[in-house]
Specification:
It is a single chain. 48% of the residues are buried. The chain has a 7-stranded mixed β-sheet with strand order 1-9-8-5-4-2-3, sandwiched between helices. Strands 12-13-14 form a 3-stranded antiparallel β-sheet. The protein is globular and about 75 Å long. A hairpin with a 2-residue loop joins strand 6 and strand 7. The protein is α/β, with parallel strands linked by helices and 379 residues long. It has 2 domains: 242 residues, Type I PLP-dependent aspartate aminotransferase-like (Major domain) (Aspartate Aminotransferase, domain 2, 3-Layer(aba) Sandwich); 118 residues, Aspartate Aminotransferase, domain 1 (Alpha-Beta Complex), CATH 3.90.1150.10. Bound molecules: pyridoxal-5'-phosphate. The site of pyridoxal-5'-phosphate has 15 residues, from helix 3 and helix 4. The site of pyridoxal-5'-phosphate (PLP) has 15 residues, from helix 3 and helix 4.
């Protein structure tokens, strides 16, 4: 039987044709496709700026830099995320501090965030919640914290592109929102990412940072131009540019973003319908506007390992998102975190399972997963 992955991209002939067009054209990097893709991203979220990066991780690094974060600063994020979220804080020389999750949303618990900020003397440069699995958590509580502690609010929405929060698209609410276009995400550019913002100054810093800290914009020059060739390096940046080839793919994928999200929502509904009422299986938090990057269920602890093996033996690949970041060996060694520091995230980790979820899945694929789960020896 065909092996069912937990996630995968959906590339069609139109996507391929757009990429081929770029390969035959004049620009391979920093040309019209970058501009058009950035405009499509910004327009979709209803924000002024989208700045593309070579990965979601590079986008996070850019956002941390643009926030002004540097050595000596602290930034709070959730214990339940991909390592890139907090690694990007460390890249700037700052230190990540972690808050436990709210078990009802699996996202950062704002009360826990406040506690950890307070225990660090109220000093925090950025607050970085993650819309885990695509769940559009209530951002109001984090906005209040950001206002209270004069911090920058950065949403890592790598899981949530195409989702909604009330009448806003994800990408609208935070000071900066970061996206990833890795193949399992809502749209893909193979590798790639972006930062969305309404703020002109952040956008300017982001553009410079991804291009070696340089600018060719006369209005930004510090020195008197030597001639029409003049450009300046004003700060230390990186080559974090996303190529024309990647952006052409992204622009083409954007045309189907709504379709992709709708299909993910249909798959989630099918899982809920088929899987409710199984003792030992807890289904994920549900909410209007959810983007369903992941369908994260919980299996009771004593069956967790067997469940993974049983589905693997039936050619169904599961994933586990995530081992709590502060308990990774690097973080334990560097900062002294230990088991028991984040009880809700740790409990979740001992039960978590991400079922296959990608728009190319057919109803039959979904039913194959649910039948298999129903036939698992639950007691
Ligand atoms: C929550 C989260 N943040 C950041 C990233 C990093 O994105 P990328 O793989 O595009 O560098 C990912 C990607 O898996 C992610 O899931």
């Amino acid at each position: 039987m065909k092996t069912l992955a937990y996630g995968r991209q959906w590339i069609n002939d139109d996507d391929i044709a757009e990429v081929v067009k770029v390969l035959k054209g004049d620009w391979l990097t920093m040309g019209p496709s970058v501009e058009a893709f950035e405009k499509a991203l910004a327009d979709y979220a209803g924000v002024k700026h989208a700045v593309t990066f070579s990965s979601g991780t590079a986008a996070l690094h850019g956002a941390m830099h643009a926030s002004g974060m540097a050595a000596g600063d602290l930034a709070v994020t959730t214990a339940m995320t991909f390592v890139a979220t907090s690694n990007s804080v460390i890249y700037t020389g700052a230190k990540p501090i972690f808050a436990d999750i709210d078990p009802d949303t699996l996202c950062m618990n704002p009360n826990e965030a406040e506690k950890i900020i307070e225990s660090n003397g109220g000093r925090v440069k950025a607050i970085i919640p993650v819309s885990f699995g695509g769940y559009p958590f209530d951002i109001g509580a984090f906005r209040k914290l950001a206002d209270k502690y004069h911090a920058v609010l950065i949403e890592d929405a790598s899981h949530a592109w195409g989702g909604d929060r009330g009448n806003h698209k994800i990408g609208f609410d935070a000071d900066m929102t970061t996206l990833s276009f890795h193949p399992v995400k809502h749209i893909t550019t193979a590798e790639g990412g972006a930062v969305l913002t309404q703020n002109d100054d952040y956008a300017r810093k982001l553009r410079m940072f991804r291009n070696h800290g340089t600018t060719r914009n006369p209005s930004e020059f510090i020195d008197k131009p030597d001639g029409i060739w003049h450009s300046e390096m004003q700060e230390l940046g990186y080559n974090y540019r996303l190529s024309e080839v990647h952006c052409a793919l992204g622009l083409s994928q954007m045309k189907r973003l709504n379709e992709f999200v709708d299909r993910r929502r249909e798959i989630a509904r099918l899982y809920f319908r088929e899987l409710s009422g199984i003792e030992g299986l807890t289904l994920p938090p549900d909410k209007e506007g959810h983007a369903w990057h992941l369908y994260v269920a919980r299996v009771k602890e004593e069956l967790h390992g067997q469940f993974f093996e049983y589905l693997r033996d039936n050619d169904i690949r599961l994933q586990l998102h995530y081992r709590p970041v502060p308990l990774q060996p690097y973080y334990r060694k560097k900062y002294g975190f230990k088991a028991g520091d984040f009880p809700e995230a740790e409990r979740y980790y001992r039960q978590a399972v991400s079922l296959p979820m990608f728009p190319m899945m057919t109803d039959d694929d979904v039913l194959r997963v649910t039948e298999c789960i129903k036939n698992f020896r639950w007691r």
